[in-house]
Amino acid sequence: MRTISKKTQYCLRAMYALTRHYGKGPTLISKLSNEESIPLQFLEQILLHLKRSGLIESKKGKGGGYSLVRPPNEVTIGSVIRIAEGPLAPLPCASDTAFRKCDECEDVRTCGTRFVMRQVRDATAKILDNTTLEQVCKYMDSQKSAPGAATPDELMYYI
After folding, report:
1. Long-range contacts of 93-96 (CB under 8 A, 24+ apart)
2. What is the pLDDT at residue 147?
3. How far apart are the C-alpha atoms of 30 and 87, rounded to whole Å?
4. DSSP assignment of 61-86, as one string?
5. What pTM value is reported for the model?
6. Other C-beta atoms within 10 Å of 142: how many?
7. What are the residue ranges spanned by the domains of the chain?
8. Burial of 51: CB neighbours in 10 Å, binned 0-12, 13-18, 19+
9. In terms of Cα–Cα distance, which of 124, 129, 127, 118 is closest to 155?
10. Sign of the torsion formed by the C-alpha atoms of 11, 12, 14 and 19
11. Is-contact 73 43, C-beta < 8 A?
């Protein structure tokens, strides 16, 4: 199965850090790098990509840094992953936004693999598009204060 890249993992961690700093003004890239243990040069590239995509903004000079453009309860994990990775579908023929017939497929209408991968894509999208940065950060905070606690209901999904 497809796994998310290290770039996407760093991207999500940077967004979680910006969520924790939301409403406190811009955060320096060096602070984000230290807090999340993301190599500075890699983080610069990630933040530039997120900025171009409209998820974050930057301010130069004294008091400058990076911050979220929208509140954390309005930014979904699915939107961040799509910006970092592209479509969620495990196969191009299962994608809503980047459909492409697989080279070895004879008929996409009757392809059993496409049928199953569409279900995988839909279930994945349902979870990722209904989970916000705010929810994930609240979950992480709850785990720090009560290790081993049950997963909050707002992060439980049944497929």
Report:
1. 93/117, 94/118, 94/120, 94/121, 95/121, 96/121
2. 60
3. 30
4. STT-EEEESS-GGG-BHHHHHHHHH-
5. 0.84
6. 15
7. 1-86
8. middle
9. 127
10. positive
11. no
Per-residue pLDDT of the chain (159 residues; tens, 9 = 90+): 578 999 999 999 999 999 999 999 999 999 999 999 999 999 999 999 999 999 999 999 888 999 999 999 999 999 999 999 988 888 888 888 888 888 887 888 888 888 898 999 899 999 999 999 999 999 988 888 766 555 555 555 555
Residue 156's pLDDT is 57
d(CA 13, CA 15): 5
Work out the number of other CB atoms within 10 angstroms of the CB of residue 24.
Answer: 8
User: Has domain 1-86 been given CATH number 3.40.228.10?
Assistant: no
Q: Which helix (H) or strand (E) holds 141?
A: helix 133-145
The token pair that represents 37 in the structure block = 């243990």
Residue 129 burial by CB count (10 A; 0-12/13-18/19+): exposed, middle or buried?
middle
